Amino acid sequence: MALLKISSPHAHGPMSTAKVMRLVILATLPGILALTWFFGFGTLSNILWASISALAFEALALKFRSRPIGFYLNDCSALVTAVLLGIALPPASPIWLILVGTGFAILICKQLYGGMGYNPFNPAMAAYVMLLISFPVEMTTWLQPFDGGVMGNSALLGPIEALQHSLGLGSVDAVTAATPLDILKQNSSATLAELWQQTPQFGQYAGIGWEWANAGFLLGGAYLLYRRVFTWHAPLSMLIALSVMAALFYDGGSSNSGGSPLFHLFSGATMLGAFFIVTDPVTSAVSNRGRVVYGALIGILVYLIRSWGNYPDAIAFSVMLMNFAAPLIDHYTQPRTYGHKKSAKESN
User: Read out DSSP for 64-105?
Assistant: First the structure.
């Protein structure tokens, strides 16, 4: 009798790859809406160009690999990579920067390794790291958030202005400012209380706009947990580890302080990383125990790099480092074999 040549997994269920990807994109909407409200339409411009270019690069790679283009484009994995990269980039980034990032993510980080399910690194974060190292000026130029006109920035980029800004057309006057994480990292004289009073970008717990954006991604992550797209192990362990590190090294707010736990939880890309990056099933640890270790180590690395590294936000670097370590974590956190008291490794 001939055996069927099919690959695992063999189980079938209602949660297909395409449906999971569409749910992930849907869950990013609250955070995207917050970014749009406080920073203008630049993030939507990023996502538009990134989505178009990601689908084009994916189709090109599939064409050269003689794979069915429609079948693989319908799984929406390229769109998820585009959306995550578009969110991570500064609003209204130049289109050439987006093209370079999406091309690297799809062609090098995904298709070069064999396509979805074979990539060892998260494509969006790998592309972000490449862009940050190669083009630091463009990657650290963020628009000033809207705060009701207190900072004099009541005119945000509209949809047309954002597209013009990304294309380099016209003379769009966009006000730029450093991010709260960068301001805190460069601070060497003012206490946190003084810094909060002197710097208009700071909100109640973190930066204006950043608090709401992180709250939006937290809401989206909770929705994905409710839909059982992923388990709680990796995101919760990351957030707890980051909070513990921030609490341990928080000195009450001196000029050398690294910031409070709430500041780190609601600054930068913390919630985006916890619920949309760390939970990537391809590049993270597999077992529940492994996911706890994986997420906790990312949380520790995020604080270490933010406080003593060269980059103010550290989600991408931390995820990339732990993508390296995921196979090792899986090796030492293998679940017990069914029917045995100890795993094969423990019994040796």
Answer: HTT--HHHHHTT-HHHHHHHHHHHHSPTT--HHHHHHHHHII
